[in-house]
Design goal:
This is RNA polymerase sigma factor. The protein has 393 residues and is mainly α. Helix content is 62%, strand content 4%. It has 16 helices and two strands. The longest helix has 42 residues, at 83-124.
């Protein structure tokens, strides 16, 4: 083993110094100025490096010319790259690419035949026989069986060869509320979808092309079943985009970004960003316990909004009393019309025609009575009494 000799500060002291006569700029003056030039020794260092590289090349050529003299079992012996191994690996890769293209064509044939079968079943609404299936596809029964067996075998081989890729992508969706087996099944569906659309003429590898379909199938499954409340897949993509943008902006700017900055960064509208932020809320069960050491549930703490509070009950009772006190100032016919018209007490709201039939008058007469009653109630005293209940729901 040869090691490079590092140049130190002592090389500069050992370097030779010479006096070099440099002519002056002015040609009329025939004087010379003496300067001291210190050589750094880099020229000698470069010479030594070139000499070592030449020695290494000569050693490598001698090893290739006489391979029988070298001991291949010696662990200290330097390994020589062989062109045969490189050619074998390239041939192996070409063979894999060729096999994947052939298997994708087999999957395409099976997909087309199954589409024909589904159309026949929708038309006849019964299970299609193999003979009618072959007639609809325009092939013989034996050829149909051969195509089906070949396509099914191509499916199995493709799923077996891409299993490691599916497992690698499924790890990114681990722990999002979907079982790992379901993720693998969705990845296999994505492999078959990509095989149906794969075209070798575009110059892509099958494994590179099918990654998008595996990712799409898994992300769709997670968006549908990972949450307690289902949201559209398009909105889940927006949520992921907003989360990534928020993380990138917070790390770069050092502060939490607002919706306007995220909209500029992602190109999305502010309305979409707001809807995505609302969907980011975690959905939980009200029967869940608050903590590990506390046995109290959320149902014991959260108030029931369907039941009125005692304060609201008392408030509504006072309002009801004040309204009936104002109605007592009106004539009996006017009071009766307002009660039936607005459903006060235990009555239901009625139309003018219904009230007119009850009182044996026309609906125009009921409208006049209602208008006169409301005019009487719109005075300063009644407004002062009812002003406290304006903002009550």
């Amino acid at each position: 083993m040869r090691t490079l000799k590092s140049s130190s500060a002592f090389d500069f002291y050992n370097a030779s110094t010479e006096l070099v006569e440099v002519p002056s700029v002015d040609d009329s003056v025939d004087t010379h100025v003496g300067k001291v030039v210190v050589r750094s020794g880099k020229k000698e260092l470069r010479k030594r490096r070139r000499k070592r590289t030449l020695e290494k090349e000569s050693d490598a050529t001698s090893i290739q010319e006489s391979p029988s003299k070298t001991n291949s079992k010696d662990p200290l012996q330097p390994k020589v790259s062989s062109a045969k191994n490189a050619s074998k690996s390239s041939k192996k890769r070409q063979k894999i690419v060729r096999n994947e293209a052939e298997m994708s064509t087999g999957v395409k044939v099976v997909a087309e035949l199954e589409k024909v079968r589904m159309i026949l079943e929708e038309e006849t609404r019964q299970i299609v026989s193999l003979r009618s299936w072959a007639e609809a596809a325009g092939v013989k029964k034996k050829e149909l069986q051969q195509h089906l067996h070949y396509g099914w075998r191509c499916r199995d081989e493709l799923l077996q060869s891409t299993r490691s890729l599916v497992l690698f992508i499924a790890r990114n969706y681990w722990g999002l509320g979907v079982a790992f087996e379901d993720l693998i099944q969705a990845g296999n569906i994505g492999v078959l979808q990509g095989a149906e659309r794969f075209e070798q003429s575009r110059g892509y590898k099958f494994s590179t092309y099918v990654q998008y379909w595996i990712w799409k199938s898994m992300s769709t499954l997670v968006a549908k079943h990972a949450r307690g409340v289902r949201i559209p897949c398009t909105l889940s993509k927006v949520i992921n985009k907003v989360q990534k943008a928020r993380k990138a902006l917070s790390t770069s700017n050092g502060k939490y970004p607002d919706d306007c900055e995220i909209a500029k960064f992602t190109g999305l509208s502010i309305a979409k960003i707001m809807s995505a932020s609302k969907c980011l809320r975690v959905v939980g069960s009200i029967d869940q316990k608050i903590g590990d050491s506390i046995s109290t549930k959320y149902t014991e703490i959260i108030p029931d909004t369907s039941i009125l509070t005692p304060e609201e009950t008392v408030f509504r009772q006072h309002m009801r009393n004040d309204i009936y006190m104002l109605l007592n100032t009106l004539e009996p016919r006017e009071k009766q019309v307002l009660i039936l018209r607005y459903g006060l007490g235990n009555h239901q709201c009625k139309s003018l025609d219904e009230i007119g039939r009850l009182l044996c008058v026309s609906k125009e007469w009921i409208r006049k009575i209602e208008r006169a009653a409301l005019t009487k109630l719109r005075n300063e005293n009644s407004l002062k009494i009812l002003n406290h209940y304006v903002y009550m729901q």
